[in-house]
Amino acid sequence: VQLQASGGGLVQAGGVLRLSCQATGDTVSINLMGWYRQAPGKQRELVALSSRSDGAVKYADSVRGRFTMSRDYGKSTVSLQMNSLKAEDTGVYYCYGLAPAMGSYWGQGTQVTVSS
Question: So what's the pLDDT on residue 101?
Answer without folding.
Answer: 86
